[in-house]
Amino acid sequence: MSETYSLNPEFLWGGAIAAHQAEGAWDKDGKGVSIADVLTAGAHNQPREITDGVIDGKNYPNHHGIYFYDTYEKDLELMAEMGFKAFRTSIAWTRIFPNGDETEPNEAGLVFYDKMFDKMLELGIEPVITLQHFEMPYHLVTEYGGWTNRKLIDFFVHYAETVFKRYKDKVKYWITFNEISNQANQAEPGAMADFLIWTDSGLKFEKSATVEERTAAMYQAGHNELVASARVVKLGHQINPDFQIGAMLNVAPIYPATPSPKDMMAALKARQMRDWFSDVHIRGKYPTDITKLLERKGWRTDVTEQDFIDLEEGTVDYLSMSYYNSFVIKAKDGREPSIDDPTTMEARANQYIPASDWGWAIDPDGLRYTLNELNDLYPELPIMIVENGFGAYDDLVELEDTKTVHDPYRIDYLREHIRAVEKAIAIDGVNVFGYLSWGPIDIVSAGTGEMKKRYGYIYVDLDDEGNGSGKRYRKDSFNWYQKVIQSHGEDLD
Ligand code: BG6
Question: How far apart, in whole angstroms, are the C-alpha atoms of residue 111 and residue 163?
Answer without folding.
Answer: 11
